[in-house]
Amino acid sequence: MKLIKRLFLTLVVVVVALVAVSFLLPGQAAVSRSITINAPANAVFPHVNSMQATEAWSPWLSRDPETKLSYSGPDTGVGNTLSWMSEHPQVGSGTQEIVESIENQLVRTELDFGPMGTATATFDLQPEGTGTKVTWGFQSDLGLNPISRWMGLMMDDWVGSDYETGLANLKVVVESGQ
């Protein structure tokens, strides 16, 4: 009986310690990747300023070809919205809406993953020589949820390679004139 009591007490202490430490962890998760595309910003911009255009280079749609997509709002720019539904755990379900669009410079979107939370994504286009440096960023407020804060530490590992794949796909699409 003493052994069970000690094990239980140890478990409680460990859980309390993990929760306490979580409040010292960052309250935001951020991921950012960049690539230089050999094309001017006006050739890149249409591919990031339309949710419909992202189908051509999205790193996630190839994971589940059965993903159901629907669009609303204008075809481009602010208000253009994508909703998706997938049973695949790495695709999931949610919505993404363009909330800011500065021609040939910036596109900002708001993502809603339902119970998984919300986030903001950006596409920043900067001239670089004769090309365009595209930076795809992601930021999510983790709130005070201890589990979210621990998971936030792994966000770059989980999403970073997808951003690299997506940017490489975007580069191919833009440079090939598709």
TrEMBL record:
Gene3D superfamilies: 3.30.530.20. This is Polyketide cyclase / dehydrase and lipid transport. Pfam families: Polyketide_cyc2 (PF10604). The lineage of its organism: Bacteria, Pseudomonadati, Pseudomonadota, Alphaproteobacteria, Rhodobacterales. It comes from the Bacteria.
